[in-house]
Design goal:
Layout (H helix, E strand, L loop, with lengths): L2 H16 L2 H45 L5 H24 L7 H17 L1 H7 L5
């Protein structure tokens, strides 16, 4: 079988199986889920450091309560409290704000698919630059 005979079969397979609406929907869902997972993962990674910093503050407070009241202890508490605030604010910033709906993402992926199907040579240079 010659390449000229195989190429149309391959293109038809691509059109029918790979670039269909179901795959586009699944791709859009996967992209949006990855964004959500990324924000949750970053928030979860910070939790142990938040806990450790809170424990340091608690220990220094006990030191103050036990009578060791000096500027160095107070300054360390203030520094840890500032660090704790930064850590607690980080998960909110780490979670990506949705900037596109699933429907809009499907629309953009469909446009890419249509561009690829209409002219594979031209679309190879522009594919993926639609978002």
């Amino acid at each position: 079988m010659a390449v000229a005979d195989i190429e149309p079969l391959f293109v038809n397979c691509l059109k029918n199986e790979i670039l269909n609406g179901k795959l586009i929907k699944n791709t859009a869902d996967a992209i949006l889920q990855a964004c959500k997972d990324d924000g949750v993962g970053k928030a979860n990674a910070i939790r142990p450091e938040i806990s450790a910093t809170g424990k340091k503050i608690e220990n220094l407070m006990h030191t103050l309560e036990d009578g060791l009241d000096n500027d160095m202890v107070r300054n360390r508490i203030i520094g840890h409290q500032a660090h704790l605030k930064i850590l607690r604010d980080r998960p909110v910033a780490a979670q990506p704000a949705p900037t596109v709906t699933c429907e809009k993402l499907i629309e953009k992926l469909s446009r890419d698919r249509n561009l690829l199907l209409s002219d594979p040579l031209i679309s190879g240079r522009r594919f993926g630059n639609v978002l």
